[in-house]
Amino acid sequence: MTYRVTFSKRFQTDGNESTMDPTAQLDVNLADGIVAEKVFIEGFEPEAKHSQEVLDEDDAFLGMSAAEVWEYEVVDGRCSEFEDAIRNSETVMEFIITDETTTDDADLSASVPLADGDSYAPDSGAQIGDGPAGQVTGNTTTDDVDEDLTITNENDPRLGITRPAKKSA
Length: 169
Description:
The structure is a single chain. The chain has helices at residues 24-27, 79-88, and strands spanning 2-10, 35-43, 65-74, 92-99. With 169 residues, it is mainly beta. The protein has a domain at 1-104: Alpha-Beta Plaits, CATH 3.30.70. The protein has a 4-stranded antiparallel beta sheet with strand order 2-3-1-4, with helices on one face. It starts with a strand and ends in a 70-residue tail after the last strand. Mean pLDDT is 73; it is low at 120-144.
């Protein structure tokens, strides 16, 4: 069975594409053997672009996303798993079934390129702390975790939380 899935492709306020892969959130939730083929169909520009390179100041907020359409050929008997993954994805805007032709396990390609769970393109060049005001952009690793971080109990008096006085209502 073939599904046409429309994703929300994100754009930066300057009109350039974000390095985030919109299909990654769906692909990471798909088990092996569900997708026989994945094909890019088309992508749209944000409405605010108005055929110009740089967005107008008043329209920059409109440039946050545009539709990107992909087709997934799904193995029969696994369609419910695929639809569950679609519903759990935060970047899928809509989906429709475009072809109800049977797809068997024998139709599986050994090299269906599904995302590995990192929603940012591997060659994005984004660095830790390169977000607004030096904030982390999501490309952190376990090496970036603060070693001095300690977890405390909610009753620890060092937190400065005091118990409310025991008064009747």
